[in-house]
Amino acid sequence: MNILVLGSGAREHAITRALNESSMTDSLFVAPGNGGTSNVAQNVAVDPMDAAAVLEFAKSNNIRLVVIGPEAPLVAGVADALREAGIAVFGPGAAGAQLEGSKNFAKEFMAKNNIPTAAYAAFTSAAPALEYVREKGAPIVVKADGLAAGKGVVVAETLEDAEDAVRACFDGAFGDAGSSVVIEECMRGPECSMLSFVTGGQSFPMAPSQDHKRAYDGDTGPNTGGMGVYSPVPIVTDAEMSKMEAIMQTAAAAAGEDYRGTLYGGFMLTEEGPKIVEFNVRFGDPETQVVLPRLKSDLAEIMLAVAEGRAEDIKLEWSDDWAVGVVLASEGYPGAYEKGHVILGIEEAEALPDVTVYHAGTARNADDELVTAGGRVLTVVGKGATFEQAREKAYEACELISFQGKQLRHDIGKKALQGRSAWE
Ligand code: AMP
Ligand code: GLY
């Protein structure tokens, strides 16, 4: 079958590489793709947000399956437009995508379905929001309600920071996303992501993974889209795994028969048990880059079964390997950064056994050199029979890659090596 993947991150590069390995895949297209997807598929200049253009491309290229990577086209209803035209889509429609598109909607969904999460209140103007944070005190979490590319969340350790965050939201720092604000109780504990294939109200959990959201070593600095990741997660107990799987099943059933795609549970492993920090309606980035390489089953077969609502055909098999991924970012990320710096050493890095380099913000310049073109540039993934081996592989490969302003965390997975007490 011919497949079209929408998106341009390292997540989409990982999805595309896995789809490319399937015997079911004939032609594989990525819109718009990046400097890495062009090595395994054909990049096409179609805007993922333009439903009419995506549909037109899908029809004229005999596309059987469209896989939607990022949240924005899902929230905008691109999946609905394609499905109405009879094309199988991996990714929920706009109704299901509200679980990520509106934090307020997600909170109500969790309350209605008894899904454990932080206590919260929602506000549409500054004065009552400020009064609420003063009443609750710090630490407290302030979130812009809509999509803000992972940057609309402030974990305020002081009341002053919390008040500043509330004011920033209502002053338009996050555009429309900040016109409504959710204020949450601050939860403590390690975070753990569980992605799940969801179709027909059933959840098929993938291997757990752990992201590192803060920009700098020691979990300091601003929140980012994710600076590094590993899978599985050694500190998670069997009891916590079962609890997380049960929560994902509750969410899948409540999301309804029509939800077909990935549901991403972002958990915090609190002393009272796993609680949801957020749901996303797509694969995580960088989680995908360590989860999919460990999937032994055929991804194209699974995605088509999800898209066509054939839950009975989904069987997931996982390798026992560990995978650790380190993000190489542009200096300044998640703030302003430069683009266009030449990237060297990817081939040398990938020549190491068990190393894969996924492209995110990369492009080819006029001289056909690979250059930086985004905040997160690459995810460098090492695999190994042990966590330590995978981690060493990833960092060895990172050293071989160079570009001006290369920014990375040096402590991905360090806390997991120290054990649970590292979070106390
Ligand atoms: P979100 O965009 O909702 O995933 O939030 C981004 C990050 O902020 C999360 O991954 C957590 O690290 C942190 N965070 C969000 N909500 C809370 C909360 N209620 N308590 C503690 N940390 C939180
Ligand atoms: N890594 C977090 C996310 O994809 O939202």
Any key phrases for this structure?
5-stranded parallel beta sheet; 424 residues; 14 helices; binds glycine; alpha+beta; binds adenosine monophosphate
What level of helicity do the residues show? 25-40%
Instruction: State Rg.
Output: 21 Å
For the termini, the CA-CA separation is 50 Å
| Mean of pLDDT | 94
- % residues in beta strands: 25-35%
Anisotropy-based shape:
globular
The tally of beta strands, per DSSP, is 23
* SS summary, helix count: 14
Biggest sheet character: 6 strands, antiparallel
Structural features, described:
It is a single chain. With 424 residues, the chain is of the alpha+beta class. It contains 14 helices and 23 strands. Strands 12, 15, 18, 19, 22 and 23 form a six-stranded antiparallel sheet that branches. It has a five-stranded parallel sheet with strand order 3-2-1-4-5, sandwiched between helices. Strand 13 (214-216) and strand 14 (220-223) form a beta hairpin. Helix 2 (51-60) crosses helix 4 and helix 7 (126-136) packs antiparallel against helix 8 (159-170). The longest helix has 18 residues, at 238-255. The chain is globular, with a radius of gyration of 21 Å. It starts with a strand and ends in a 6-residue tail after the last helix. The model has no long low-confidence stretch (mean pLDDT 94).
What's a concise summary of this model?
This protein is α+β, with helices and mostly antiparallel strands.
Write the SSE topology.
Blueprint: E1 2-7, H1 10-20, E2 28-32, E3 42-43, H2 51-60, E4 63-68, H3 71-75, H4 78-84, E5 88-90, H5 94-101, H6 103-112, E6 120-123, H7 126-136, E7 140-144, E8 153-156, H8 159-170, E9 181-185, E10 191-199, E11 202-205, E12 210-211, E13 214-216, E14 220-223, E15 228-231, H9 238-255, E16 261-270, E17 273-280, H10 287-291, H11 299-307, E18 322-330, H12 346-351, E19 355-359, E20 362-364, E21 370-372, E22 376-384, H13 387-400, E23 406-407, H14 414-418
Parallel strand pairs: 1-2, 1-4, 2-3, 4-5
Antiparallel strand pairs: 6-9, 7-8, 7-9, 10-11, 10-16, 12-15, 13-14, 15-18, 16-17, 18-22, 18-23, 19-22, 20-21
Helix pairs in contact: 2-4, 5-6, 7-8
